[in-house]
Amino acid sequence: MTSQAASAGRAASPAPAEPAPSASAAAFPEVPETGLTDAQAAERAAQGQANRVRTRSSRSVAEIVRANVFTLFNGIIFAAMVMVLVTGSWRDAVFGFVIIINTGIGIVTELKAKRTLDRLSILVASRFTVRRGGRDVEVRHDEIVLGDLLWLRGGDQVPADARIVRTWGLELDESMLTGESRTVRKGEGDQIYSGSTAVSGMALAEVNAVGEHGYAATLTVQAKVYKKTVSDLTRGINTILKFMTFLVVPLCVLLVWSQIRAVGGWDHALATGEWRAAVVSAVAGVVGMIPEGLVLLTSLNFALAAMRLARRQTLVQELESVETLARVDCLNLDKTGTITDGGIAFDRIEMLPGAATGEPEALQALYDLANEENPNGTGLAVLAALGAGDDGGDGGDGAGLAPGDVSARVPFSSARKWSAVARPDGTVWFMGAPEVLLSALDADRPDVLERVNAHAADGSRVLLVARADVSRSAAASLADAPGLNPHARPEALVLCSERIRADAEPTLAWFREQGVRCRVISGDNPVTVGAIARRVRLTGDEPPVAMDARDLPEDVDELARVLENVDVLGRVLPDQKKAIVKALHTQGHVVAMTGDGVNDALALKEADLGIAMGNAASATKAVAQVVLVDSRFSHLPDVVARGRQVMANMERVASLFLVKTVYSALISLAVVLTQIPYPYLPRHITYIGALTIGMPAFILALAPNTRRYMPGFLRRVVHFALPGGVATAASVLLAAYALPRVMGWDVDASDADLANLRATCAIILFVMGIFVLARVARPLNGWRGVLVACFAAAGVIGLFIPFVRRFFALVVPGGTLIPATFVAMAGSAAVFLLCLWIVPMIWRIIARMTATR
Length: 853
Description:
The chain is α/β, with parallel strands linked by helices. It has 3 domains: 77-104 and 229-308 and 641-852, Up-down Bundle (Calcium-transporting ATPase, transmembrane domain), CATH 1.20.1110.10; 316-340 and 503-636, 3-Layer(aba) Sandwich (Rossmann fold); 346-498, 3-Layer(aba) Sandwich (Calcium-transporting ATPase, cytoplasmic domain N), CATH 3.40.1110.10. Strands 8-21-20-19-9-16-18-17 form an 8-stranded mixed beta sheet, with helices on both faces. Strands 1, 2, 3, 4, 5, 6 and 7 form a 7-stranded antiparallel beta sheet that branches. Strand 20, helix 23 and strand 21 (626-628) form a beta-alpha-beta unit. It is elongated and about 125 Å long. The two termini are 65 Å apart.
């Protein structure tokens, strides 16, 4: 008998062996053990030996606030705002509101996710029965103390580690800890661990580890360390900010120095108060170089995507997680809870060659065998398929069976591994583990054993149905003297399987089409897992390659090479799941991992993106970045689609923002070198940036976009931004140099002339901003062209609104300013077109030279 066939016989969740204790809350077997006294229990609780665990389902409020407030971006903007406020020019400090908005969006969104997760993680306030002073008393789970004698019954989740003292057929589901979906029968002296669930039977166990010393708590200690999601988009923006930090500080000092020199030196500036204008001018350069709207828009876009996903029962705990799955190329799936729902499904009954019974009679016998007072998982599956009128498979007629005439019954138990029913006419039907029934029969049936092994290798859970004809008196006494009849004849095989989620196959097909390599990683038998992977077409038309994780190499590089050719891994231990993720990382893969058990927590934490099911253990949900609240695997394509929309659109708008960074840096550098007055004010850049970058970018960022992610976000953004940035800087600097000479303005002595120069340069800056916007929004057919036209018109209309004109220090061209402005705009257009041709050509030459080296 193979291990697969053996596990098939054990797979059903049996009822307790006789004699079974009462299932009522008050009735327990009489035992000689008295347990701790009330005084001993109170003393141990006072010594800290109670079953209390300080659990955290997610980041604390303080951590969320700190992570969103103390950022590099906020620091730069805050320092610039303080400098402007010191000068008393509060209108030029309105850019500082972006700190409040950006920080608020991040905090509110993550707090909302935290509240939802905390609600998911609240444990049911279960009460347990312990034996103290010879009495059975009910206590809360946190009132259990070390040394208590704990009663466990079917349906209870083990609250603390314990050793079995007495057992009445106790079977545990340890899948949350081991990843194996089959139940495990426990005997006296066996160790049981917190987090497992009693499926059937009863036991009295002595608690030997409580609270944080329990196995589940120990396993998740490493998982409690918070790990920030690494976002390619955020990394690219942070790279820009870091570069700007090194540039901004010395450039700001130089700008202040150059502007002080421009107004007549420090003595004159301090005496006349013109130092304030110098500081404001310097900040104009600094603020222009910082893509503050990009950071704000990124947070807002992530938040909106997270809210949309929340409406689809997908909880995003970290905003950057929306983007990460768009880059994933490896998805490691846990079998139980992801592909299967943990339940058992009746597939069909297969009549054996030479069976003396017809299929309808065998189906009726199968129904009666399953129709116990407390049927196990397999029995419930049979009853659901045959009794509800559903087509149970090849053998089910879907007519709906009713209970037959049964004169005696032997219920299924883990001790026997079989059950039986007797008819009044002397017919006895047996059902149970094939190896148990076959070993008790006189006749040797290797053909039946071969069939059982073949079905087990295909992932089925197999039970054997046999028939014996005895006297009526013998049949009636079956319950009094239960035993297998050696003359029974094998009649049929009952084939069951793990119930596969209806959405598993189409979801896997979607990932396959998108080029994401999916692997199934499970603690179950690799043959069984491989069979399930074939049923859901994990690898399409090709059969999946399955492997036993016990044969995996320990060396990370060797493990990575092996994994490239493996689709299914069975018998995987928790540490191996983490090692598998690490190995895939060495090959440059972006890895997502799904899971629901405590055994998955470390791997989820190690992965680039951890995805937990809504019914997962608290520790698992705590380390996951995404929680599928209703545990539906089919939500993952929605997450990918939102991630791709964020990535593709944010790359578009990042190019728009970086243009401003490029031209602000070039203009600031030119001002330092030439010591001319800064050509515009901070409020000018606020007005122009809002109309040509901020508001259009918001609309473009929310547009539908399903483009697949391509590496090289920062390189593409820089490649796009350089021509527009250089063209804008050249246009403004040429105007700042030529207009005073052409128009006869004395910008060093006349405030009015300087105001005219700055207003004209602001108009040129706005025109160049519209050119760049049109380039980013391409193609301009349809709503994109209307978008560009509307914001161009809004900028012009704003010039003629008195309040807007005064607040932003704008000037409507008039008199001699009109021809000068038009000439400057025409020159700007020419410079723009020239730079679009020259700058990319220079960029390509530099790239070739770098590659050659």
